[in-house]
Amino acid sequence: MRVGILCNGSVEDYAWLGSVVNGLDALICADGGTNHAYRLGLMPLVIVGDLDSVRPEILEHYRTAGVPVKQYPKEKDQTDLQLALAEAVARGAKTVLLLAATGKRLDHTLGNLSVLASLHAHGVEGIVLDENNDIRLWEKEALIEGEPGEEVSLLPLTTRVTGVNTENLKYAVKDGVFEIGNPYGISNVLTAKTARVKFAEGLLLTVKSRDAGSLDRGKAT
């Protein structure tokens, strides 16, 4: 089951966002992500959060339409996204796409990236996807699909990622060690449609980045 969680971050291209959501089995809105859903005419499975960012008239629209709303106190120990993730996992999600999860608030963006580790711990594939970036978390082996010439960065999410070996990347790594504070895995380049990264220990983020003008708008690769 592929579930999208629509957050309150930046959306530059609503046509692109709509095409991605159309390929999902269900959509959950985390608080202000409901505003994005309304603009696209989408009907979420559920709306969760403290509801301090969703416009009142939009929230009322969805309540009237029968969409379940789970409201939490503003002062709480979990972010709205974490609450939405718990909802997705409880409903049997196997893959979760975090949409509108990046933007001007760097603290929110970093926090949203970090929850990929929580999804991984529950055996759920997590993907942070925006118009320019496809961000995923891997253990032991990463498979990166795209087009030759596309850029991909390899970044440790744990303190160290050891025994790194790459295939089909321009700047090859053999028995490498990636450490937080030494980001030498930035801006590698695909030389084939599929690249492989094998490693012994740690958790590795891959960030496949493309200019907005070159995106395949209808595909979450």
Could you list some keywords that capture this structure?
Rossmann fold, 12 strands, single chain, elongated, 12-stranded mixed beta sheet, 221 residues, alpha/beta, disordered C terminus
> Which topology of the largest domain does CATH recognise?
Rossmann fold
The helicity comes to: 10-25%
Task: Count up the helices.
Answer: 5
Largest sheet entry: 12 strands, mixed
Judged by helices, strands and strand pairing, the structural class is alpha/beta
Mean pLDDT: 92
Terminal CA distance: 17 Å
What does this structure look like?
- The protein has 221 residues and is α/β, with parallel strands linked by helices.
- It folds into two domains: 2-131, Thiamin pyrophosphokinase, catalytic domain (Rossmann fold, 3-Layer(aba) Sandwich), CATH 3.40.50.10240; 136-214, Rossmann fold (3-Layer(aba) Sandwich), CATH 3.40.50.
- It is built from five helices and twelve strands.
- The chain has helices at 14-21, 33-40, 56-64, 80-90, 106-121, and strands spanning 2-6, 26-30, 46-49, 69-71, 95-99, 125-129, 133-145, 151-156, 160-167, 176-179, 188-189, 194-209.
- Strands 1, 2, 3, 4, 5, 6, 7, 8, 9, 10, 11 and 12 form a twelve-stranded mixed sheet that branches.
- Helix 3 (56-64) links the parallel strand 3 (46-49) and strand 4 (69-71).
- The radius of gyration is 18 Å and the shape is elongated.
- Mean pLDDT is 92; it is low at 212-221.
